[in-house]
């Protein structure tokens, strides 16, 4: 599993990595969480995001994953991955006969 390709960074993360130092310079003593928050505000306000598109990185990742799986990778539990358990279906809540008769009585008294 260690050889499986890692997912590429999003356009926002690519931009944030390049803008992080300037955000820190503009706001001395800012916390890490505040850097991310400020970065999000700047990203939302930004118009020309096309230079940060991560389409090529995503294509490269998809190609690498297909190659990895074609070479026998990603076989699930055989490769040490934990098997995901299916969640049991939720059962509808049951009303007791008493609850149903109480509701009927309420409707009649109106």
Automatic annotation (TrEMBL):
InterPro entries: HMG_box_dom, HMG_box_dom_sf, HMGB. Residues 5-67 form the HMG box domain. CDD domains: HMG-box_SSRP1-like. The lineage of its organism: Eukaryota, Metazoa, Ecdysozoa, Arthropoda, Hexapoda. It comes from the Eukaryota. Residues 68-110 are annotated as: Disordered. It comes from Drosophila rhopaloa (Fruit fly). The keyword Transport does not apply. This is HMG box domain-containing protein.
